[in-house]
Amino acid sequence: MRLATTQTFVSPDIEANGRTIRSMIARAADSGARLITFCEGALSGYSKFQIETPQEWARFDWRTQEVELRAIAALCQQRGIFAVIGGAHRLSNGVPPHNCLYVIGEQGDLTTRNDKRFLSNAELGGWYTPGNDAVTVEVDGYRFGFAICIESQFPEVFSSYERMGVDGVLFSSYGVAEYFQIALRAHAGLNCLWIGASTPTQKSHKGPAGIIGPDGEWTARCIPAQELDLTIAELDRRDPRYEIALQKARPWRALARKGDIYRLKMVSDPRSSDRSDF
Length: 278
Description:
With 278 residues, the chain is an alpha/beta fold.
């Protein structure tokens, strides 16, 4: 299964963002990708940057975002590709929107929507409303979870997805700073997951978009500061590079976390609990 991650220039112009997103979807489909991901706010714009104050949500052009989402969905259906689009999801009665990822299927349907659950302190200041649920999507037998920006700093997001049996986590952020990169590589290696990271061009000099393998190593990366770029990696559970991570480490760690193997050892060897000597 081929996964594409992107870095695109995010502007205040929703229609321009939509055109950019569609051009990258077409490019990814031409390269055989089955799933493409975009950064946080790729379509709508992101808080403090394209959306300069929380009060601007009252004037946000929700209709244009809907039109662009439908055009993106039509292209996904035409090209037979899944797309994960960073945007804002409107809530009622003046409540701040969700910071979300729209997941569009190969049939042009809205497969699911992931709402950012762990908001930053700044985002809680009227910018966004937190989501509640962890969601997953399956593409060609590979299952993915989602994380957005500051959620890279919450290990439980990734460990819970590992327990749910996902193969990878799709990470979308308005920037992938070095300490984010360190955390993402650790999450990938500790949980034996692929992680696909997407970022805007404006922040790519701090860390370009890319894909991390289940061994915690980058397997594909975009060119830093290149305005429109994508990178593709083939996800294959049978890849010899990941035999230890996927066939040995991940099942062993799951068994070890249950603890039964250690309790059985103590029953069979009572001396293992003796603390009277060194």
